[in-house]
Amino acid sequence: MSEPLLRVEALEAGYDEVQVLWGISLGVAPGTMTTLVGANGAGKTTSLRAITGNIQPFGGRVFFAGEDVTGLPVHQVAQKGIARTFQLCHIFPALTVRENVRMAAQAREGRRWQFLGGGGVLSRSATAADEAMARMRLTRMADATAAMLSHGDQRLLEIAMAIAQKPRLLMLDEPTQGLSIEETGRAVQILKDMLAAGDLSVLLVEHDMEVVFKLADNITVLHRGRVIADGSPAAVRASAEVRSAYLGGAQ
Question: What is the pTM (predicted TM-score) of this model?
Answer without folding.
Answer: 0.91
